[in-house]
Amino acid sequence: MTDPGEPAEALRPLLFSIAYRMLGSVSDAEDIVQDSFVRHQRALAEGTCIESTRAYLSAVTTRLAIDHLRSARVRRETYVGQWLPEPLLTDNGEEDPAAYAEQADSLSMAFLLVLERLNPVERAVFLLHDVFGYGYDEVAGIVGKSEANSRQLATRARKRLDERKRRFDASRQEQVELAERFFAAVGDGDVDQLVDMLAADVVVYGDGGGKAPQWMVPISGVDKVSRLFAAVGRQMREMGIRTQLREINGQPGALVLDPDGRITNVFVLDVTDGVVQTVRSIINPDKLRHLGPVADVRALLRGHRKRPAAHQTVLPR
């Protein structure tokens, strides 16, 4: 029999949250959740005894995500340039600082990238126990390990993550205000303002996946990054491109839109100690389609006339 007190559909947000953190991909997470529901319905039709819908669907989702990760790692070895997670819009109106800090920490791109240091099973154990609060007995059943082994895997994962894991400032308002000033300075091409808002060791990463113009290597240092984004602002003005501030993966960021409102790329900011520490730009169109209509960036560049060479840094070729 099934647990009548927990309808399967009500578990969709939880299952998506697990799959997305496992994979860093919105589209793949949605596919896996849907596959989990199909398998659940098939099991019911075959008369399988399911004592807990939550436990069954959590297990199926996690196992599918583990299998997907194993094959995805092979594909990422040939990925062109820096791989970044697919951006997830997280504007939800939540005002509680503690709740915001928890979301920002476990959904941030920095955290998802740190998870890449773990193998698929370690990642599953850590997320299920430390992020989603599953007991070790539940985790053991889901990943097919003993409870003692699951505890060991979680401990190992924490040690590996603690080397790079960083908590973000819990004040949403401060981060939003800094993002507003940052993107305003970008729009104005104001180098001095940008310098004041950037950490000395600020780093910019770009992800085009070989399917759109991208920065192939990280760009670091306050001087290079401030001049880069001043040039970004100038080119945006020339091309009629604008930014729309949004909360992305629990962090301040912006959708970058062409004159027709199509998305060219997404910027996500890491804010630490009141300054911008990291800027990530996702311009790979395959990673943006779930957000809305996507612009053809190369076509925009071809159609852009009278652009000085120094102004070509916003949408690199």
List key phrases describing it.
single chain, 317 residues, alpha+beta, Butyryl-CoA Dehydrogenase, subunit A, domain 3, Nuclear Transport Factor 2, Chain: A, 6-stranded mixed β-sheet, 6 strands, 50% helix, elongated, DNA binding
Overview of the molecule:
It is a single chain. The chain folds into two domains: 8-162, Butyryl-CoA Dehydrogenase, subunit A, domain 3, CATH 1.20.140; 172-311, Roll (Nuclear Transport Factor 2, Chain: A). It is 50% helix and 14% strand. The chain contains twelve helices and six strands. The chain has helices spanning 12-23, 26-45, 53-76, 97-107, 109-115, 120-131, 136-143, 147-162, 172-188, 191-197, 222-239, 297-303; strands at 198-207, 219-220, 242-248, 251-257, 263-272, 275-282. It has a six-stranded mixed beta sheet with strand order 2-1-6-5-4-3. The N and C termini lie far apart (58 Å).
Number of domains: 2
CATH class of the largest domain: Mainly Alpha
Report how far the terminal alpha carbons are from each other. Answer: 58 Å
By DSSP, the count of extended strands is: 6
CATH superfamily of the largest domain: PhyR, sigma-like (SL) domain
Question: Which class do the helix and strand fractions yield?
Answer: alpha+beta
Protein name: RNA polymerase sigma-70 factor (ECF subfamily)
Pfam families: Sigma70_r2 (PF04542), Sigma70_r4_2 (PF08281)
Domain RNA polymerase sigma factor 70 region 4 type: 109-161
GO molecular function: DNA binding; sigma factor activity
